[in-house]
Amino acid sequence: MASGVANRAFLLGPHLVLRIPRTEAFVADLVKEAAVIPVARAVGVRTPALVTFDTSCTDADVPYMVLERVPGVDLADAPGPCDADVFRVFREVGRELARLHRVTPGAAGEPAGVPVEYDPEADAPHRLVADLLSAGMLDAEAARWLRGWFDRLAERIPGGGAARVLVHGDIAPQNLMVTAGPGPVALTGIVDWGDAMWADPAVEFAKTPLPGVPAMLDGYREEGGAVSGDSYAWEARVLRYHLTWALTRLTDPTPVRGARHWTAPPASRLLGLLRFFASSPPEPWRGLA
Predict the structure, then answer these.
(1) CA-CA 20 to 30 A from 63: which of 18, 29, 75, 135?
(2) Cα distances (angstroms) measured from residue 197 to each of 25, 187, 254
């Protein structure tokens, strides 16, 4: 079946999926998944149950995992869902993430082997813009404009940093399973926990194409996943990640050929930002441009 960067995936009959790391370099991510999946399920996140995790290396030369199969297809391969269906799926995803983000470091049943995301310094975006200007990737006027945008976003974001929570780390269309039959498209499960980490929860919304983020945040808030009245700060944090990662991609503009991830083409994030703000997004997003 469709496989990711880290693992090959095979169907074992109609109800089970076998996942095997492509190389030993990805074994640690599979070990992490085995620890995170039961925790995610325990807080109500729709993700397939772990059936077997074998580290003996007797049946294969690396550990492997067997999971229950989630019905449907991934959102990246869904046969042309309409915008309303896609936004409804992202709203459901937001509710799932609100449940997941209640898991904090040191809580009972904390999953082992989950790394802590590096906390970028406050001036990191300015250094990034300076580096791109020096490398000839930006002109001086564009660099001034970007620095001003980052400054305006920083004014919306409270100091002190966000509390770390357990995040999936790769909420992208290929990891969102949806119904495949006739009728409205609905979320059936979230898969692939190899990028799970302790991080600012706003990071979670930066792996999703920006047009889907407002619906995802709506669902997140409905499930109690954001502080009331904190909308500008929350959206500003998400947007800063999208903008920073879009510019960072300019430092390594080599296409990732054959990859299914939406950010594999170097310009995808920048074009996503352009498309989003050119489509008259709702407030508070318009006020953050």
Answers:
(1) 75
(2) 17, 23, 26
Tell me, yes or no, whether 51 lies in a domain: no
* Predicted model pTM: 0.92
Judge whether 197 and 103 are in contact, CB under 8 Å. no
Q: Hunting for tokens 């008259």 — which residue is that?
A: 280
> pLDDT (tens digit, 9 = 90+) per residue, 59-97?
888 999 999 999 999 998 887 778 888 999 999 999 999
Residue-wise pLDDT tens digits, 262-289: 898 999 999 999 999 999 998 899 999 8
Write out the residue range of the structural domain in which residue 180 sits.
71-288
| Amino acid sitting at position 104 | T
- 38 falls within a domain: no
Structure tokens of 174?
Answer: 């290929």
pLDDT digits (tens, 9 = 90+) for 20-39: 999 889 999 999 999 999 99
